[in-house]
Amino acid sequence: MSTLGLDRSGNGNDFIAVNLTVSDQMLDSPTNNFATLNPLQRFVTNTQAPTEGNLKTICGSTNTANKHCIASTMGVTSGKWYFEVMIGTTANSHFSNIGVGNSSVKEFTELMNTTANSNNVPWDGSYGWGYDAYNGNKEHSNTQTSYGSQATLGDIISVAIDMDNSKIWFGSNGTWIASGNPATGANAAYTNVTGNIVPVVNTQDGATAFVTMNFGQDSSFAGNKTAQGNQDGNDIGDFYYTPPTGFLALCTKNLPDVAVVPSEHFNTLLWSGDGSSTRSLTGVGFQPDWTWHKVRSHAGSHMLYDSVRGTTKRLHSDQTSAEAVESAEGTVTSFDSDGFSVNTGSSNNFYTNQSGKTYVAWNWKAGTTGSGTTTGSGTGKAYSYSVNTTAGFSIIKYEGNGTAGHTIPHHLGATADFVIVKGRENTEAWQVISKAMAADQFIQLDSTTQQLSQGSYNMFNSTRPSTTVVTLGTLAHTNQNNLDYIMYAFAEKDGYSKVGSYTGNGNADGTFVYTGFRPAFLLMKVTNTASDWHIVDSARDVDNVIQNTIDPNTSSAEGSGSNRFDFTSNGFKLRQTSGSYNGNGSTYIYIAFAETPFKYSNAR
Questions:
Q1: Average pLDDT, stretch 562-578?
Q2: Do 556 and 430 share a domain, yes or no?
Q3: What does the pLDDT look like over 397-455, one tens digit per residue?
Q4: What dihedral angle (degrees, nearest 10) is formed by the CA atoms of 291, 297, 300, 302?
Q5: Residues 462 and 393 in one domain
Q6: Among 89, 56, 64, 49, residue whose Cα is nearest residue 206
Q7: Is the same domain home to 484 and 502?
Q8: In this structure, are 407 and 326 located in the same domain?
């Protein structure tokens, strides 16, 4: 406590500690932040905001007979991790549940943002694994199994997660339950823990019932225990019990380094038109291989260019029209090392550089080029591509063969999670498939239409993309014989991109979606009803709330409406109640790209 508030600059501008104790001083620093409970991801109507630095959750007086669930701020997909939970010292605090959930699935997001009273926790489904402090049972997929003993008030529950081997253990007061041994991998409570795993706790059945978390920042549990000062193997943290060998505190310093620096692979460029006939636009930070333009201040079509089809060839996401070739004006004339150049001409410069108008371009890097012959059923056809396996993005130009089962190599080296296809020579719609939709579903980028069943449409042969190919059906939208097509394919990358879905709750305290990074770009659409697509980004809205939207399926100018989103250090939070963004019970798909990975990001 003697150092709390001291100015280490040497200028003597010290703070005076008033009504503070040692337990109020945390280990967080500008270079390392520990996980906490997430006030944005909790049962909306009956879970109070956490206290004690977002480490304590209390049942409260509202709907005490129901569960009061809240998740943590940090998720992991690999590595070995340890945290502690103190059962509260007040009546009924042992009516609590402790565990983890897979935040990647829609059902988790739906449950954790419910506005209705819920008696469920994530381990009531297949996406959660938990320990019931009241009866000592473990639970997964709504099946409770005898495991340990009932917890008592003040007990400390330890949790160890080995994501590399899909295991989880629970301990009580320093002893691992059921002879578990995380250090050796023996006798785990469960051996099927997968996904993006976040800690989750629940309180119930008493207005003052509570639990307090310790992710490594406070072994006194807000002054309720005598601090023990145990650290993990990286000499990080303040735990009550010593973490098992190899298990680490949930903090940013312990998170693995990211493989992708977002700004080197995606960037948004803004500019104001100056009316010049030619112009080089810089500031992207790399040569873009796919650049998507839109005039912001006025109505005008979206302009999509890529290096595989070549300069001067544009497509419009808001139209079904065939590819246009415009060499004289209103087009991209080169893909440059730090952006692109445009030839705006005298009459059609509205598209790219008209004086008095503002513009946006979203830019992706591919880079490694190649060509080959398509595979699967029917006659093999020529294709060419540009791919960025590091960032999970490829552009493929191919020729259709009219045969179901025609397969297009995407060269991502991982499963294609989000795919967009457009015919270059015909006037068919843009087709989109996502891993967040069923294998027999697709949706159209140029339309408000809800998701459709492939059925007789047979766009993608009702087959999910694999780690090597995208499979096509027979329709002209994706695979008419002898016609040319363009495909944009994306594979998720931790800390850089996220493909998923969420369920709206119709509340201003809207659904929170965990991405594992602070978003720079978000493309989303409701899938169970007709409505516009939306794009928001952190370049056009540098601060929360994010309000400026552009709709890929319309030529409308940028819209600036009521509160829509918050971009946070680890995801995005809905603030809009309309069905287009956050309708109660509606399902939405999205693809997001990072501004900053969570390891290095701060809240906006």
A1: 90
A2: no
A3: 999 999 999 999 999 999 999 999 999 999 999 999 999 999 999 999 999 999 999 88
A4: 20
A5: yes
A6: 64
A7: no
A8: no
Using alpha carbons, select from 559, 543, 539 the residue that is nearest to residue 551. 559
Domain that holds residue 237: 36-254
Buried b (16+ CB within 10 A) or exposed e, 417-427: bbbbbbbeebe
pTM reported for the whole predicted model: 0.92
Residues 463 and 518 in one domain: no
Last residue of a domain, one of 254, 281, 311: 254
Mean pLDDT across the chain, nearest whole number? 92
User: Is residue 467 exposed (0-12), middle (13-18) or buried (19+ Cβ within 10 Å)?
Assistant: exposed
CA distances from 463 to 385, 402, 407, 408, 419 (A): 22, 16, 10, 13, 12
| Whether residues 67 and 176 fall in one domain | yes
Peptide bond into 545 cis (omega under 30): yes
Between 199-203, 353-357, 407-411, 444-448, the lowest mean confidence (pLDDT) is in 353-357
312's enclosing H/E stretch is none
Q: Is the peptide bond before 284 cis (omega within 30 degrees of 0)?
A: no
Q: Tens of pLDDT along 12-61?
A: 777 766 666 655 655 656 678 899 999 999 998 889 999 999 999 999 99
In a shared domain, residues 356 and 373: no
Do 336 and 215 lie in a common domain? no
